[in-house]
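Predict the 3D structure for this chain.
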Amino acid sequence: MKIPFTLRFAYYSFRAVVRAGLLLLCAWIFLIPATAEDISALGAREGQTYPVGLRMMRAAKVFVVVAPPRAYDMIAMGLPQDVPSFMVRLALMQMAAGNVLPASTRVAPTTPNSRDIEGPRFIQVD
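Done. Predicted structure below.
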């Protein structure tokens, strides 16, 4: 028995749309440079096109938007420690917000220091 043409056409069209969507998603995660919003969320220097943690942040964004609540339960079951699914969800939401690196590795915003003065500087050694 051969499947009617309209059903085959619908099936192959749907398959092509899904493949194109997955290709677009992978291109967004791996090839598209960071926007100004991504750079500020990651705490990176201005002008960096691919800051550290960009791919992880984008993958977490996709997971938070697409994954059903049961996915967090399955991840929690797969972890070796007794981690509740709420903590897994919280961690992924923090990654999606750009908090993927420890605070010590982030670039601190440069503020003028009160010790910087105009003119000569004198060093006194005790």
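The two ends are 97 Å apart (CA to CA).
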